[in-house]
Design brief:
It is built from 16 helices and 18 strands. By secondary structure, the chain is an alpha/beta fold. The protein has 3 domains: about 90 residues, Arc Repressor Mutant, subunit A, CATH 1.10.10; about 220 residues, 3-Layer(aba) Sandwich (Rossmann fold); about 120 residues, no CATH class.
Length: about 550
């Protein structure tokens, strides 16, 4: 059996292609007048909006022209527009509309039917019982792809709330949500998933619980952590799409590099007041996020300063004011781009779409890729080790690495490891052993004299360290992470795959009889089990989120 590719063209593109085809085969001569809009709507069995979209496409490609008060007329085919005509006709090849009908020589017969892609089997859903049933009427929608998709949402603030809500409604099968912040009253004005009773709770946990409540058929997982240092690359490696809902450049740069290393597409969004932007970055296709940064911005983001803690503090200062309306607009665009990526539909990679809510203008601009961009590096073959971050020491990993790469191999860390803080006045030293991003500017001051202490940093493990006995987790390496090593000539990549069952499971807020909930009740969010309606109430608490004090 020959399997044909799935048609991914809209109905308007199909109509435009059919009209272009009649120009190519000579059915419509140059200078001929097209039938009236009413006639074409009847002939093609489409809506007025779809027809006008098709005519606009033909006009933009110089294949037809409008004569005010008269109608639409075909243009001459020439070197400037013939290729566009053939391209439009190619898109419409999967749907057949008789040319005679377009020319007005054949009246429509039989009942009107919506054209569908012949590759997609006809399925009439039960809209009373199938919550995703309406999507079956979309010609390109593939339920299985959506239901099996794995999507990582980074950030559960105003943008993240909109994205998570949209993905849950669409039935995106597996959602992983990460955020390090907690809910405060100011979040309630623009975050649809949060309530007053959620004060001081984890944004990621509450958002995941509410997504599960919106659509119990999806699977969710949350992580309370900073994406710059708390998320293992093995998680990103197993995702289909990553959506960034962030409010600072440092986190965006980290997500951009992680996605490029793992060869995964990501969708970025940003909002401020009534302004917003959305953009898709696909490794190897156009610019990445780091390509968009100015030299000054890159300098500000560099972690190799004489006073790195202060540099990071300056990067993270301040929060931008936003409105729920712009969050809805940009979050909707991001969710839609993710849906297109899941379906392998074309996206404008390396471009940015700006929306100006002050005058309701929208425009798209292409970024210029930088040849020397440090993010443009994709990891090679990854070795999966039955090792865990909590129990594997630096010495253990170095032994494995050197068995592969030789005695001079070193382990590279993703960011600077702060080993100690040394006071130049008191001459005291405090061991830290944390990634730089996890140490605040305030913590850098001496507890005795208040002096800002000197930082002792390292970026690689070469075997001479006096802390090789430490576990990977104790120096800030997250579970299911992928570490890289090199010997000066080649790189190897090692995943802590022993962490997989606990680090990536999508089972939060899902309980079975075989998996009793033994966690403490205090301070937890849970989905209440199905029960009978309480006396005096028309409906019970089935599927509600119970916020336990």
């Amino acid at each position: 059996m020959k399997i044909l590719p799935v048609n991914r063209y809209s109905l308007a593109e199909t109509v435009a292609g059919k009209i272009a085809g009649t120009l190519i085969d000579g059915t419509l001569k140059p200078g001929s007048q097209l039938p009236s809009e009413r006639e074409m709507i009847s002939q093609f069995e489409i809506s007025r909006a779809t027809l006008r979209e098709a005519l606009k496409s033909l006009e933009e490609n110089k294949l037809i022209e409008a004569r005010p008060g008269v109608g639409w007329f075909t243009s001459d085919l020439n070197a400037k527009n013939v290729s566009q005509a053939h391209e439009l006709a190619r898109k419409a090849a999967v749907v057949s509309v008789p040319a005679a009908r377009l020319a007005g020589n054949e009246p429509p017969t039989g009942p009107r039917r919506v054209p569908i892609a012949p590759e997609k089997p006809i399925h009439i859903p039960n809209l009373r019982t199938d919550r995703q049933g309406t999507f079956e009427f979309i010609s390109w929608w593939e339920r299985e792809k959506v239901a099996s998709a794995k999507v990582l949402v980074v950030g559960a603030g105003a943008l993240g709330n909109e994205v998570i809500k949209n993905l849950a409604l669409m039935g995106m099968g597996n959602l992983f949500i990460i955020d390090f912040d907690t809910i405060e009253a100011a979040n309630l004005s623009r975050s649809v998933l949060f309530r007053e009773s959620d004060n001081q709770r984890s944004k990621a946990e509450v958002a995941a619980a509410r997504a599960k409540a919106i659509n119990p058929q999806i699977n969710v997982q949350f992580l309370n952590a900073d994406v710059t240092s708390g998320l293992g690359l093995g998680v990103i490696r197993r995702m289909d799409v990553i959506i960034g809902c962030l409010d600072n450049r440092e986190a965006r740069l980290a997500v951009n590099r992680f996605c490029y290393w793992m060869n995964k597409p990501w969708v970025d969004g940003a909002i401020q007041e009534l302004l917003g932007l959305a953009r898709v970055f696909v490794p190897g296709k156009g610019a990445c996020y780091e390509c968009t940064l100015t030299e000054a911005a890159i300098r500000d983001l560099s972690l190799r300063y004489s006073c790195p803690l202060l540099a990071r503090q300056n990067v993270l200062l301040g929060k931008v004011p936003t409105t729920p309306t712009i969050a809805s607009i940009i979050g909707g665009i991001q969710s839609q781009e993710a849906l297109k990526l899941i379906h392998s539909m074309p996206v404008e990679a390396g471009k940015v779409t700006h929306f100006n809510g002050l005058n309701n203008e929208m425009h798209t601009t292409a970024y210029v890729p930088r040849e020397d961009c440090e993010s443009h590096w994709t990891y090679g073959e990854i070795t999966e080790l039955p090792a865990r971050a909590e129990s594997t020491t630096l010495e253990d990993l170095l032994r494995i690495v050197r068995a592969d790469l030789g005695p001079n191999a070193v382990i590279e860390l993703d960011q600077e490891l702060l080993t100690s803080l040394d006071c130049p006045v008191c001459h005291t030293s405090e061991q830290i052993f944390l990634p730089l991003s996890q140490v605040s500017f305030e913590a850098g001051h001496c507890a005795v004299c208040g002096t800002l202490r000197d930082t002792v940093l390292t970026h690689a493990i070469n075997g001479d360290e006096n802390f090789l006995h430490r576990s990977l987790a104790s120096i800030g390496v997250p579970a299911l992470h992928i570490l890289r090593a090199n010997n000066g000539q080649e790189y190897r990549f090692y995943e802590l795959s022993g962490d997989l069952p606990e680090a990536l499971h999508f089972r939060h807020f899902t309980r079975t009889q075989q998996e009793p909930d033994t966690r403490p009740v205090q301070g937890r969010i849970r989905i209440k089990a199905e029960s009978q309606p309480a006396e005096g109430h028309a409906d019970g608490a089935t599927g509600r989120i119970k916020l336990r004090a």
